[in-house]
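Hi support team,

I submitted a single chain yesterday and got back a structure, but I'm not sure I'm reading the token output correctly. Could someone confirm the output below corresponds to the sequence I sent? I've pasted both exactly as they appear in my results page.

Thanks,
R.
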Amino acid sequence: MSRSKARSKSLGVAEDIFGDLWDVRQVLDTKHGFAMRRGLPQGMRTGLPDRAGPARVILTPDLAAFLEAHRAPRDPLKWDLPLGRSQIKKLRSILGHHGKDDAQSWWMDRLEDLSSLTHAAFAAKHGRDLKAVQNASVRYLGLRDRASGWWRFDPARSVLLSGKPIAWIAEQLGCSAQAAAKFRYRLESESPGHVPRSQGRRPDRGPDHL
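Hi R., thanks for writing in. Yes, this is the structure output for that exact sequence:
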């Protein structure tokens, strides 16, 4: 059999996370307990008349789950696949992952720990570099030294529950608007008579250096 015919031979059919079927052309083993597959949309060919182009990585449920589990900023496993970085970035884009937005979401999800633990304790608990923790603390919580849970107590508590615009609150507390909105939401959720408001629209750009 010629090389061209061998290359075009189908190795079966795979379904992607969107329910579409692909003819598998290549199977790539990974270190993570699943195999990746390359292929073409079912029934299409690389040349004329279909112009499907070369075989593409199929976004199977296993691959999508792996990328979702390792989407956190600086998680090295997201790159630990038998693919080039540009290919992985393309797959992450299809999944709606965005490095800068993911970074901000990661810190916001751990904001209470960031505001209550020492930098060293936070770094040890969450596996982050100490300098990155220090930078995030300044970015989201400001330069001041604060006691653990400072935002739960007056005067910060009264400012957060004042009903004032979130930008004003952030300015008064010396923290980011994202942190102020997160803290306000938590206090309102825990306070009788307060209806929790939105935590605010996340900016289009997150921290690009954390």
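A quick pointer for reading it: DSSP finds ten helices and four strands in the chain. Let us know if anything else looks off.

Best,
Support desk
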